[in-house]
Design a protein that fits this description.
205 residues; alpha/beta; Rossmann fold; 8 helices; methyltransferase; transferase; SAM-dependent_MTases_sf
Length: 205
Amino acid sequence: MTDLSDRIVDLYRRHAQAWAGARTAMPPGAWLMEEAWLARFLALVTPGAALLDIGCGPGLPIAGHLVAHGHRVTGIDSAPEMIALFRANLPEAEARVADMRELALGRRFGGLIAWDSFFHLSPGDQRRMFAIFAAHAEPGAPLLFTSGPAAGEAIGTLEGEPLYHASLDPAEYRARLDEAGFDLVAHRAEDPGCGGHTVWLARRR
């Protein structure tokens, strides 16, 4: 199934508008299902800090929420169509087309988010991402990301096409975070208050 991970960018390029529209069409209670986790993330961030949204998509609702709380947000996404939507939705924010697996912005941020993006990478690419997270995180910066609940690969759908997801074992995520210089702050598998997301919140030492 890992070959499907190579098709993720093309899939989101072709269905960017449909993906963004599906999120917009969610009922009010689900529109920002991440709000409680974002609040925990923001509680660890210095007021006005620059934040990096990795796999930002169209920028709504997550990056928009961060901007509304007074933060300077840089969004990166591999799909140019997603970045175009991000720029239209959040013209005051910075946005770049970039592959997270090769990210090297040459600067650090006060907080990093990889929500519903990191888990599209193959297990090997996920392992390599922790050094990239560390290279872009200031001391004390929180890192918030989602994964699967257990090691393995899974296939969802986007507009009727197969959508790849993968996860490492929770114990390995803990070890990788520690090795990269992050302390685990909170973890919840399949959080019922967040649409069943498995969420990790860590902080750079």
